[in-house]
Amino acid sequence: MDLNGTTAIVTGGGSGIGAALAAELAARGARVVVGDLIGASDVAADVVRGGGQAVGVRADAAEVAGIEDMIRTAESEFGPVDVYVANAGVMGVPGLGADADWDVILDVNLRAHIRAARLLVPGWQARGSGYFVSVASAAGLLTQLGAAGYAVSKHAAVGFAEWLAVTYGDDGIGVSLVCPLGVETPLLQAIRGVDDPDARVGASAIEASAPVISAAEVARVTADAVQAGRFLVLPHPELLDMYRHKGSDYDRWISGMRRYQRMLRADG
What we know:
The protein is α/β, with parallel strands linked by helices. The protein is built from ten helices and seven strands.
């Protein structure tokens, strides 16, 4: 996909990877709607000051009404949506959590993607083109120590992106799945400061697995993948070997992860 002249929506665009994606897409000629509960208008203003086209919308990407608001804004300001970047995400509570905790994390990390696809896919099918970007996590291919909700919801997001790609690829709809390891974002900064043993293990696991990279690097690699029509986007190339190791001997991988968790708990 040539991003120049496209209309894109980026959820969770008020900071971190979302803000970097908004800037990167705009730099490549996309007209961007930045959606978030906090900071969307500031990010859009920064994009405009940099010479790009963007507008910010205060919207909850997990709610149908919020997604509809972003789509309406995109259509009125720039035209039909070509690219939807489902980036908004939450870490959730450490450990197993309660039912209410699971509802929140599944709404943001999974159902938000499903709800957006329901609204956009029929129009994309009719036009014969469209692109869905799912910003998941390495946790969706491996796991996330210390946080069941995050690990499970990101696995589900991976599965949904795969299903979209298989089901609608022949209709001209592209899908990219973005799975970074550690990225220097407010989300990572927040879990570093949580006074909970599971949270500390989770933060340590993220930072020890590979070098922590910038959100701008994730955005660059993601935009390259969209332009190339590539499904799996690994901002940390070393993740591919980790994923292959997991698949080659699942029992050995689980045993190794248990040892890794014991080590991190002892160090913490």
